[in-house]
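A further point concerns the way the authors explain their paired sequence and structure data. An entry of this sort, consisting of the sequence and the corresponding backbone structure tokens, reads as follows:
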Amino acid sequence: MGMIILALFLFSYISSATPEGRLLFENHCIRCHAEGSKKPLSLLRKKYRGNPSGVVDLAKRCPWGRGLSDMEIKVIADWLTREE
């Protein structure tokens, strides 16, 4: 029980410090979507703004995205497509 509480505490701390989607993107997607690449983050943000289902479809075709869970993909999609 104590480990669960600790894990939830750490998760909420990390969440407030860095949005989960951004953290997941940086750990799994940035290797192909860094600025200067063919499809950088800035292009993805513009292309998929307000269209998280488009990001989900893209991630499921992406070699690195196929290793992510549906929940992780949804978190990335929500972060990437939100209005700033």
